[in-house]
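Internal tracking record. Fields below are filled automatically when a chain is submitted to the structure queue. Please do not edit lines marked as system-generated. If the sequence contains nonstandard residues, flag them in the REMARKS field before resubmitting.
Queue: standard
Priority: normal
Entity type: single polypeptide chain
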Amino acid sequence: MSRRSADRLPVRRIVVLAGESSNDRRMLASFIRAAHPGLASAVRLTEITDPVRLRKKAGPELSAAAKTLVDKARGKAKQQKGEFVGIAVHEDMDACPGPAYDRARRAVSTALAKAAGACSSVYALAAAESEAWLLLFPDAFPLYKPSWRLPDSWHGRDTGRRQAPKEDLEGQLVRPRYRESDGPEIIRKALEQGLLTRPSGSNRSHSDFIADLKGWPIPSQRSRR
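SYSTEM-GENERATED OUTPUT FOLLOWS
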């Protein structure tokens, strides 16, 4: 390939995923692919492993932490010889939705948007934790482990009201026992079967994330010059 032809190749556009663990980042990737397939097909989803500790910060401390995280994401895109176009960040709220959730989500979302500038950003503040989002897709559990069934009484509920959804799953799914690393695989099964766009029940933190994500523009195609 000539130098001139190489210069005309499309620029690789990068969306960076940040979260408390690899499990959370993998789940974010599946949710993005389900909720915004146009975006997912137009970009490469990649991860940074830097710790995410934003929700308990405020003021200049929050602004500095958000900028550091976005700068790391820009560096990751540059390392992959791509163009940074957005960042998706996950944290567990460790509490049910309420005034504290609203304040944290609003403050962190604003700080990330300012740090990202012309690029996109979205903040997934899972209430109470990621396992509560898993509970929105009860039919995915037996797809992953045939012996796993959630009680009918858990279906169609507001999963964000569960104080300890991870412990609830660990107590219910014992053969084999549920582990955090099972979460991304359950969500992957839900994605494969088209379940991620049809939650059973509700969770405001999930709905907020999906609504913000759907507002992301699909980056336009351009070539290297």
